[in-house]
Structure formats: structure tokens, C-alpha cells
Amino acid sequence: MGDNRRVSEDRWAPLADRSVGGHCGSLRGRVRTYVIDQHLRWHLPDPPAAVVDVGGGAGHQALPLARDGYHVTIVDPSPAMLARAGELVAREPEDVRDRVSLVQAAGQDAPEALGGRRFAGVLCHGVLMYLEEPAPFVAALAELADDEGVVSIAAKNQRCLAVSPALAGRWVEALAAFDADRQVNGLDVDTRADAVDGLSQLLSDNVVEPVAWYGVRLFTDGWTTDLRPLDNEEDVLAVELEASRRDPYRQLSRLFHLIGIRHRAEP
Ligand SMILES: C[S@@+](CC[C@H](N)C(=O)[O-])C[C@H]1O[C@@H](n2cnc3c(N)ncnc32)[C@H](O)[C@@H]1O
């Protein structure tokens, strides 16, 4: 689904509505956005720092940053996803709109498409699972980061792929998932998963030091839209955030959120 080279057709167009709806239209989507946002805020420098969101899609993760004063560049190869982002940005006040730029490019091409510009924050959430080959992509993310810039990646957690099918009662699939690194996701796309140590090594290979990792979405991962929490949504978010930060919970979360800091160049 993702494209490690250039994108000649918009393969995200048929998925755009479901992907965008999944963010705000479901508790599990809101948990993902919230947990990643909380960790990001902890690591990013204060606004008005410049951040780039690679594979930023409709901008759900990036727009709140722009509202808070960050200068945000959303890079995505999909015209359909960028059109969604454009619609959301158009609803914002003028000062927020002025802080957001949309650029059509694949992540691997982003350093060139952005003219060599470097950023205090490089975000890439929910994209690596759609790419067959993560190494060149991670190298491009590192290239976009300024000295001491933050690189923030959310990826599918390969170490616990059996959890989701097992909790859904698909036992044959669960058994096979223990040694797998692929799984069909909620958008019916065959996705690839990463492990924290493997992705950390890829960052290190590209002069980005891994400094922290978190889980993203544990208890609500299997929640369907017909389920309603007995307590307030803010209580759900608080529980998921707590689980994201401590073992063993974070290890069993569906996604992981890895933070790295790019080394300062030698003078
Ligand atoms: C599940 S959406 C995630 C959107 C956003 N990062 C978020 O967390 O809300 C995946 C996005 O990856 C984008 N994508 C797919 N292949 C890509 C590539 N090679 N480079 C950059 N983005 C890509 C898709 O167009 C889509 O917008």
C-alpha cells in the first residue's frame, strides 16, 4: 500500500474516508491520537519550532500542534489525504492556517522535495507498516531532522501480533502470528510490523539516538464503535496513557511510539 519509491497513483484514495474516520470517529482512534500527542509534547521543543509530519495524512496529529503555535509541514504522497488535510486546515483561524504547509511527496523523496530544509521535529506515525522496506525511509526521516531534532515514529508492534486475533477468537491466526511480521489491519490492508529494538537500530544507523519508547493503545485496541465505556472518555484516555508508559503494558500495546534525537554534527 505504501510506496518505497514514488507514488504514481493515489493508492490511498479508496481508504481516505475510513482512515480519516478512524481517527475521530472511534474511541480507539482518539486513544491513538491522544497518547501519541502526549508523548510528543513531552519531547518536542516549545513552539514556534518547525515540525514536519511525514505521511501526515489528513493532519490529525499535526493540526493540534499548529493550533499551539508550531509551524507544521504535512508531507504525504496521496492527493486524497492531502485534500482531507486541506479541508480541515481551511476550518482553522487564519493564524493557524498560516502555520500549516501541505507538500505532496513520498517520505523517501521528502528531503529533496523540501529543498534540504531541516526541522526541530520529524513525525512519522502510522506509515512504516505500509512500507515494504523501512531502511531508506528512516534514513530520509533522519535527514530531515535538525541537529538535536526529535524524530518521532509510531509503528506496529511486531512482538505482540498474536494479541489482536486471540482476543477476537481467531486462534489459528493467533498461533501463526507469534512468528509473523505481517498482519491484515482494520482497513483490510496487509501491513508490516516492526520491533522496538530493530527500529532503534535503524535510527542509530542514521545518527539518531533512540531515547524513549512508549506503547500506544492496549485496552481499547479491539473496541468496536458499538461499545461504550462505563466511565468518561477522559478516564479511558488516562488509563491508556498510564499503560503506555510502563511495563509490561506498553510491551503488549498494538503500536509503539519511538522517540529519537539526532546527534549534533561535529564542528
Ligand atoms: C494511516 S495514515 C496515517 C496518517 C497520519 N500519519 C496520522 O497518524 O494521522 C498513513 C499515511 O501514510 C501515507 N503514505 C503511504 N505511503 C507513504 C510514503 N511512501 N511516504 C509517505 N507517506 C506515505 C498515506 O498516504 C497515508 O496518508
Can you describe what's shown?
The structure is a single chain. The chain is α/β, with parallel strands linked by helices. The protein has helices at 16-24, 27-43, 63-67, 79-90, 94-98, 110-113, 134-144, 163-167, 171-177, 196-205, 233-245; strands at residues 50-54, 71-76, 100-104, 119-125, 145-156, 182-184, 190-192, 208-216, 255-262. β1 (50-54), α3 (63-67) and β2 (71-76) form a beta-alpha-beta unit. α1 packs across α2 (27-43) and α2 (27-43) crosses α11 (233-245). The protein is globular and about 50 Å long. The model is unreliable at 1-7 (pLDDT under 50). It binds S-adenosylmethionine (SAM).
CATH homologous superfamily? Vaccinia Virus protein VP39
Let me know the largest β-sheet.
7 strands, mixed
Number of strands: 9
**Average pLDDT reading:** 93
Level-1 CATH class name? Alpha Beta
Spatial arrangement of strands, main beta sheet: 3-2-1-4-5-9-8
Low-confidence stretches: 1-7
Query: Oligomeric form of this entry?
Result: single chain
Distance between the termini: 41 Å
- Total separate domains: 1
Indicate the structural class.
alpha/beta
* Distinct helical segment count: 11
Q: What ligand molecules are bound, each kind once? A: S-adenosylmethionine
The string of secondary-structure elements, in order, is: HHEHEHHEHEHEHHEEHEHE
Shape: globular
Outline of this structure?
The chain has 267 residues and is an alpha/beta fold. The chain has helices spanning 16-24, 27-43, 63-67, 79-90, 94-98, 110-113, 134-144, 163-167, 171-177, 196-205, 233-245, and strands at residues 50-54, 71-76, 100-104, 119-125, 145-156, 182-184, 190-192, 208-216, 255-262.
